Amino acid sequence: MAGLLGLALTLAGAELPREEAQLTFAPAVPPPITRTEPATVAARLDVQVVDGTLDGWHQYRFWTFNGHAPGPFIRTRVGDTLEVHLTNHDPSGMPHNLDFHAVAGPGGGSAVTTAVPGGQETVACFKLLHPGLYIYHCAVSPMLDHIANGMYGVILVEPEGGLPNVDHEFYVMQSEFYTEKPAPDQKVLHYSHEAALAAQPQFVVFNGSKLSLLGKNALRAKTGERVRIYFGNIGPNCISSFHAVGTIFQNVYREGTFTASPEHLIQTTLVPAGGATVVECTFEVPGSYALVDHAMAHMELGAMGDIEVEGAARPDLYRSPLLVGQAPADVRCRTEVAQAKTTGAP
C-alpha cells in the first residue's frame, strides 16, 4: 500500500500542488475550480453494492461507485494529474476497475486500476490532456453487465480559462436498466443479461431512478437565471435525444467538447451511448419544465425530470384565458382569441 502510494505520487509529479477531489452525487456539481495552475487531484472511489429503488416501489441491487448510481462527479482542470484510489467492497468477490474516457493510455486506465475485494487499494495516475466532459465506467468483462448495473459517472476537465459563470450547475446521467419480467406482486427486480443483449430496457431513467428528478427532487431555478446541465448518457445501448420542454438550449457544447465554441439555439441534442454534452439555458416564464429523452419510448420508460422555475408572470411572452391573475393581459388575450374566431385568422 505505502509502496503503491509512493509510486503514484512520483508518477503524478511531486512538484505539483496536491488536493483532494470534492466529489458530489447527482444532481449536485462540485464548485468551479479557481486555481490557474495544474495540480494533482486525488479521487477516492469505492465499489459498493447497495439496494435501492428504480421507480419508488420496485427494489434493485445496484453495483456502484461510492454507494450511488450514477457515481460521483469529479471536477478537474486541463493539465491536472488525476490520482485515482480504487477500493472494492463487492461481497461477491468480483473484480472491478475504471475506464476514464478522459485518459490517454491503454483501456482509459482500466488496464492498471483493477481492484479485488478484501481491502486492496489500487492507485494510478493519469495526466489530463484534453478539456471536456467525459464518462467513466467499470470495464471488467462482461462490461455490459457492469455498466448496466450502475458502475459509471462523469469527470469534467475544465479548459485553462475555466467556464463562463452561470447561476446553477446540475449533473444528470441517463441510463438503462434491464430486468427479468417480474411476477405481479414481485417487489425485488433482478438483472437480465439477455434483455441487455437484446437492447430491450425495462427502465430508462435519469440519475438512477424514475423519481430522481420529480416532485420534491425536481431541480429548481428562477426566471432569468442561467442554468448549465452536465448531461451524460452511459447507455449501455441507447442514444439519448435530450430536450427541455418549453425552452431552447442557448449553448450546447456538443459531445462535451470545449475545444470549439458552443452551438446556439438548439432544441434537442443527440448524446450517444458512452457520451456526454453540456447545455445551457435560461427560463423566461415561471412554471414547471420537463427534461426528457424525446425518444418517446424512453420517456415512457422513465427518462424524464422537472425543473421548477419561480418568478414573476410574463404575460408579454406567455398568456392565455386559462391563466389567472394576468389582467389586463388576459383580457387582451381573450379579445385576440375572439377576434381570431370572428375573422377566421389562425
Gist of the model:
With 346 residues, the protein is mostly beta strands.
Keywords:
single chain; 346 residues; mainly beta; Immunoglobulin-like; five-stranded mixed β-sheet; 12% helix; 37% strand; globular
Helix content: 10-25%
The CATH architecture classification of the largest domain is Sandwich
Number of strand segments: 20
* Strand-pairing-aware structural class: mainly beta
The Cα radius of gyration reads 23 Å
Strand order of the largest sheet: 11-10-13-18-15-16
CATH topology of the largest domain: Immunoglobulin-like
CATH superfamily of the largest domain: Cupredoxins -  blue copper proteins
- In total, how many domains does the architecture comprise? 3
Helical stretch tally = 5
User: What is the H-and-E element order?
Assistant: HEEEEEEEEHEEHEEEEEEEEEHEH
Q: Could you tell me how far the N terminus lies from the C terminus, measured between alpha carbons in angstroms?
A: 74 Å
Query: Which outline best applies?
Result: globular
Mean pLDDT level: 92
Secondary structure blueprint with pairings:
Layout (H helix, E strand, L loop, with lengths): L1 H11 L5 E3 L19 E14 L5 E7 L7 E5 L3 E8 L10 E2 L20 E7 L4 E6 L5 H6 L3 E7 L9 E10 L15 H5 L5 E4 L12 E4 L3 E10 L4 E5 L4 E5 L9 E4 L1 E4 L3 E8 L4 E7 L2 H5 L3 E7 L18 H15 L3
Parallel strand pairs: 1-2, 2-5, 4-9, 10-13, 12-20
Antiparallel strand pairs: 2-3, 5-7, 6-8, 8-9, 10-11, 13-18, 14-17, 14-19, 15-16, 15-18, 19-20
